[in-house]
From TrEMBL:
<feature type="region of interest" description="Disordered">
    <location>
        <begin position="108"/>
        <end position="131"/>
    </location>
</feature>
<dbReference type="InterPro" id="IPR036291">
    <property type="entry name" value="NAD(P)-bd_dom_sf"/>
</dbReference>
<dbReference type="InterPro" id="IPR051783">
    <property type="entry name" value="NAD(P)-dependent_oxidoreduct"/>
</dbReference>
<feature type="region of interest" description="Disordered">
    <location>
        <begin position="263"/>
        <end position="293"/>
    </location>
</feature>
<feature type="domain" description="NAD-dependent epimerase/dehydratase">
    <location>
        <begin position="3"/>
        <end position="213"/>
    </location>
</feature>
<dbReference type="InterPro" id="IPR001509">
    <property type="entry name" value="Epimerase_deHydtase"/>
</dbReference>
<protein>
    <submittedName>
        <fullName>SDR family oxidoreductase</fullName>
    </submittedName>
</protein>
<dbReference type="Pfam" id="PF01370">
    <property type="entry name" value="Epimerase"/>
</dbReference>
Length: 293
């Protein structure tokens, strides 16, 4: 397949580009800057210059290729308004890409987030979150999946709160950044809440499998660790950085505080059985040992 990818230079995106090329696919990747274009070409991808917010460029990329993987998302998490702007851009992008691919049987795989299920690990059958800071994103993904009835092979790979590589990435990476800034390896709540996690290379393998074979209207869980206690994460960060480990109020973590404090384990049992996905990368706690003081 010749695959159009957005967000191809991020933690997940760079792993997806490598995964696709290693398995015989070719890649056309969106690049906004000269630096991104250079990185993508060095990785072996073709480059389409443009901005994720330019839906005409997105349509052009989709029209030239056999399928799309959408991974782009804004990086400004400083406030609910900033997050809402990123979600609005993503919603417009998914609408444009879906319309371009409608009725063609060409796949569109987008990223989403694992949901929360009270008192248990969430599964692929649970609906996405449609309330709170990221609720609108869940509604956008539901709209995309609903286009299966109109001939779109659209699927969602649900990523856990931490996609990690070399001790960086996701919510655990945010805890480490906060620790460096404040001098305390902090955690919200009582620390017993659990976060799912996955190594970036394993997530990339699932995006490829979904692209190749997943039917339209389906969601899949890229979950390696079903649930890691947040206090355990903070303790590794504190030890690696030589900082005290302390409970902090939710407000210390900005708009993500309430989400950080939520118990949110997630299962990938169905994904493994149905798509043959087998994560092989290091666990989150193992990978956090790569954090440099």
């Amino acid at each position: 397949m010749h695959v159009f990818i957005t967000g191809g230079t991020g933690t997940v995106g760079s792993a997806v580009v490598a995964e696709l090329l290693a398995h015989g696919h070719t890649v056309l990747a969106l690049a906004r800057s000269d630096a991104s274009a250079r990185t993508l070409r060095e990785a072996g991808a073709e480059v389409l210059r443009g901005d994720f917010a330019d839906v005409d460029v997105l349509r052009s990329g989709a029209a030239q290729t056999d399928g799309v993987i959408n991974l782009a998302f804004g990086r400004d998490y400083s406030s609910p308004d900033a997050i809402a702007r990123s979600i609005a851009v993503e919603r417009a992008a998914l609408t444009a890409l879906g319309e371009e691919l409608l009725g063609s049987d060409r796949p569109l795989v987008t990223s989403s987030g694992t949901p929360v299920a009270a008192g248990r690990a969430s599964t692929e059958n649970d609906p996405p979150m449609t309330e709170g800071v990221v609720g609108e994103r869940g509604r956008s993904v539901l709209a995309l999946l609903g286009l299966a009835s109109r001939g779109l092979r659209g699927t969602a790979v649900r990523l856990p709160r931490t996609v990690h590589e070399q001790g960086r990435g996701g919510f655990a990476g945010m805890l480490a950044e906060t620790a460096r800034r404040t001098g305390v390896a902090g955690y919200p709540g009582d620390g017993t809440q659990r976060w799912p996690a996955v190594h970036a290379r394993d997530a990339a393998a699932l995006f490829r499998l979904a692209l190749e074979s997943a039917p339209g209207g389906t969601s899949w869980h890229a979950v390696g660790d079903e649930g890691v206690r947040v206090r355990d994460i903070a303790e590794v960060i504190g030890r690696r950085l030589g900082l005290p480990v302390e409970q902090l109020p939710q407000e210390a973590f900005g708009p993500f505080g309430p989400i950080f404090a939520t118990d949110q384990p997630s299962s990938s049992a169905h994904t493994r059985q149905a798509l043959g996905w087998r994560p092989t990368g290091p666990s989150l706690l193992e990978d956090l040992e790569n954090i440099q003081p």
